[in-house]
Amino acid sequence: MGRQQLPPQIRKLDVADRKTGKTAVRYQLTIDAGSDPITGRRRQVRRRFKTEREAREELGKIAEQAATDTFVPRKAVTVEQLCADWLASLHNARPTTVNAYRYSVAPLRERHGDLVAQKLTRPDLDRLLTDLREGGTTTAKGSTRRPWLPRSLNKAVDAWRAVLAYGVERRELSHNVAASMRKPPRVHQEMATYTPDEIRRVLRAADQDRSGHLWYLALSGLRRGEIAGLRWSDIDLDAGTINIVRNRVQAGAGNVVENDPKTLSSRRVLPLDDGLVGVLKRASARNAEERLSLGPAHRDSGYVAVNEIGEPYTPDTLTRMWLKLAKVAGVRPIRLHDARHSCGTAMHLRGVPLAVIAKWLGHADASVTARLYAHSQDDALRAAGQSLGVVVTSS
């Protein structure tokens, strides 16, 4: 069988080897790759290969990409530049969302930032994901990361996919090597909530705490950002209502952003019981005394969650204060957000309809509420077991 003739797009050349000076055979590929989607000009690709097989493989690859309008010319944009451009393109995202994405792509930028994006491979990403799961990767500041949990790993995969999809959209990449990455299975973690006895112990400790009114609000179902963003002008102590109209959220270390609630359902007016009205009246009076005592030195920011000179607490500061209170109260530490879940759980165990709990907590959909509070606490389970025992033994 005779040697297969070269296609017209491939020429066999005799060229001088740059290292040895000797004559070497090379195969030059010249092919029309279609029109540039931006300029409309025809694109011609010219590349050289050491072997005929390499030239033929590249010919088939480029011809297919040109036919399907997926051809992307070689570009020098790096992974770092692509990540930076993608983050800068998130015009409609909240600062907290952008910061979360920045956190998720940080390992990718640190390890492969200098790599030309077109040379990034699926194995590169798989190895990075494995290293993040096992722990020990180094941050840009030189610290060592702890092992990432499945939730953080899944967010990282989502962010990497989005970065590379952005590159494909911009014609920087021909395909998304993260598109088919498999996420680690999420491990279900039971929600941590306080029992009625623990809530009473926390509130007793709160009564001795200058910021105790904040913990009453937390156990009344307010989010951390809602507490941080609450102003005295949002509270009508005479009518006994509280108006949730804003969030103050942490967007990175030391950076706090105030914005509207994430959803329309998060904006809500809640009635206050007499006990909480009394707690808030005492806090308001104390704030007035501090303002009068300090005079011009008092910030008078108008926020409910402030220090002695009227400066608003950051959300992260509220978290640290909450954990200190738990220690004083002698109860197990749970997240500040779980104080809100403790409220929802207590309502559920008392038979409050899920639709009402959803309205109170500001959930957009009662199905979210049902999914969150379909569990029961250990004490309630024991009571259910005792009830079952009575039924069984008396039957």
UniProtKB/TrEMBL annotation:
GO terms for biological process: DNA integration; DNA recombination. This is Putative phage protein. Coiled coil: none annotated. Residues 77-168 form the Core-binding (CB) domain. One of its GO terms (molecular function) is DNA binding. It comes from Mycolicibacterium smegmatis (strain MKD8) (Mycobacterium smegmatis). Keywords: DNA recombination, DNA-binding. InterPro entries: AP2-like_int_N, CB, DNA_brk_join_enz, Integrase-like_cat_sf, Integrase_catalytic, Integrase_recombinase_N, Tyrosine_recombinase_XerCD. Gene3D superfamilies: 1.10.150.130, Intergrase catalytic core. Signal peptide: none annotated. Residues 189-386 form the Tyr recombinase domain. The keyword Ubl conjugation does not apply. The keyword Transferase does not apply.
